[in-house]
Structures are given as C-alpha cells and as structure tokens.
Amino acid sequence: MLSYLHGFHAGNHADILKHLCLLYTIQYFNKKDKPYSVFDTHSGRGLYDLQDEKALKTGEAARGIGKLLEASETFPESVPQELYEYLNFVKKSLKEGFYPGSPAIEKFFLKEKSNLFLTELHKTEFEALGHNLKKIEKNTECLVKIENKDGFAFLKASTPPDIKRGFILCDPSYEEKSDYENASSILVDVHKKWCGATILLWYPLLQNRADDIENMKQRILAYAKKQNANTEILNAKLCIDTEDSHVETSLKEAIGSAKPRLYGSGMFVVNPCWGLKEHLEKCLPYLTRILQSEQNGSWAVSLL
User: Fold this and answer.
1) Which of 98, 143, 161, 270 sits CB 3.0–4.6 Å from 199 for a disulfide?
2) Is the dihedral of CA 42, 48, 50, 55 positive or negative?
3) Helix or strand (DSSP H, E) at 15
C-alpha cells in the first residue's frame, strides 16, 4: 500500500517491540562464526528524523522511544540489563541526528560476509533508503542489496538464498485486508522451501481486525506444524492499552482526544532463536510499565 509512510509511526511502542526482537535475533546469529542471509520485506527509509512534521504530528515517538529514553535516564537502576544494547544504539543514533529503522539496525550489526536484502515499493522511501544507508558505517564486508520491488514477491522469488542460514523480518502496513492474507500465504510458501529460516512477523493489534489477525497467525501455525510438528513458534504481545480503548469519533472530536486504534502489537516468530522467550520475559514487564496508557498495559509471551 503506497499511501503508508512509516515516518508518522517511527519510534512508537510497536517499533520498540519489533526492534528488540530483531536485535536479539541478529546478535544470536552473530554468535557463530558463519555468515547468514537477512530479508527485510518492508524496509522503509531506514533512518528517521523524530523532530520532523510527520513524527510531531502523531506524537507517537514522544510517547514511545522518547518516553522510554527519559525513563531510562531518570531511573537507570530500574532498566533491565537485556535492554542496554538496544537503548545504547538508539541513543548513539539520535546523537548522530537520526532514529534507526530496521535496515539501519540490520546493516550496523550484520556479521562479516553476510547478505542483507532490503525491499521497499514506495519510490520516495526507496530512494531515501539508498541515501540513508550510506550514513551507517560498516567496517566488515557484507552484501547489501536494495530493491524497489514488492517485498512479498521478492521474498518468494529469492528464497531459499545461497547462504541458507538466516532470517526474515516481515512487517507490512496492514492497511488493506489483503495484507493479512498475503503475509500468511507468502510466509507459508517460503517456509515450505526454506524451513530452517527464522521468520519474524510483526502484526498490529486492532480491535476491528481481530479476526484477520488471528486467522493469519493460525494459518501460519497450522502449515508450519503440518510440515514439522516440532516446529517452534513464539507469540509475543506488548499492549499499551486495552482492546476496547479506541472509540470511533468524528474528525472534529478526535483532534487531541481520541485514543489510537493501535492499542498494541505482536511478534509471531517461526523458529525463534534460543533464549528469545526469556529475553522478552525480562524486557516486556518494564516496557509495559513505562509505555502503558493510564495503567492499562499488558504483555504476554508464549511458545506454541
């Protein structure tokens, strides 16, 4: 969907959950002295200015990463150790004038001789991505390939990759109902031919899309278990409010008062890296406490 621009939402609570899982996965893959392949299907522009018009208009970054950084600096003793590296990287990036999206995290931490495949369909965002990644210094030799293509189609056509050790980050905009169906069908197809890959699927928590979200997850779960009953799947959720917190209002009534539809988000992970569940169990209680609205937050992590 070409109307979606991540700049309005960069740095929100959903970004934090997604990037926390992403960074843990990269660091786990880095433990072995072997290269790997990474696919990021909906890359965006890679770097964001949290003081620009888009970010300030929604205020999501201020209520997300801004709130988290302020809390971590005010009460550093309460921050879980598992959050240190993520927070330190964000702080370092912000000092350099930008907030890092997933491609920036991937390029910076990517292991030597590994391959990174980034796809972004929006022409302006694609051009910005190519320009922005030049700002991410990387001393090790890696292949970084950027494509102005549909991420789902590129993923299906390009897997399994030459280097079969690897993972996929998939986070479509979900603006259309078809995104839920496409995500499940494409990831099922990819899992069939690249069954050893770790698949990180981010999904929104929206009351009006509850059935679509559940159906998407159940389709992936059913096919993965059918292929191999021992396939491990992790489901994690970070909610800053309750499911029924959003109330539809007129545009006039909504200005400055209505709660957003996105009350939380989740990560559905096929073949999660060992220790991810425990990592999230240490981080999510703290993130919930800091990011929640009116003490209505919650979190959950389970293996399916």
Assistant:
1) 270
2) negative
3) helix 13-30
Sign of the Cα torsion 80, 139, 197, 125 reads positive
Q: How far apart are CA 197 and CA 187, in angstroms?
A: 11
- In order of 41, 167, 175, the CA distances from 153 in angstroms are 9, 17, 18
Whether the pLDDT of residue 254 is over 90: the answer is no
3-class DSSP state of 259: coil
Question: In this structure, which amino acid lies at residue 73?
Answer: E
DSSP 8-class letter at 224: H
- Report how far Cα 113 is from the mean position of its chain's Cα atoms: 24
The model's confidence at residue 247, banded by pLDDT at 50, 70 and 90, is low
Q: Residues 104, 132: contact at Cβ < 8 Å?
A: yes
H or E element that contains 152: helix 151-158
Mean pLDDT across the stretch 234-257? 72
Contact 62, 16 (CB under 8 A): no
**Mean pLDDT within 122-140:** 89
Phi-psi region of 147 (alpha: psi -120 to 50; beta: other; left: phi over 0): beta
Query: Contact, 13 vs 64, CB < 8 A?
Result: yes
pTM: 0.94
Residues 6+ apart with CB under 8 A from 61: 10, 11, 12, 50, 55, 99
Catalytic residues: 171
Q: pLDDT at position 246, please?
A: 65
pLDDT at 193 over 80: yes
Q: How far apart are CA 157 and CA 80, in angstroms?
A: 40
pLDDT at 57: 86
Under the phi-then-psi rule, with left for phi > 0, alpha for psi from -120 to 50, and beta for the rest, what region is 163? beta
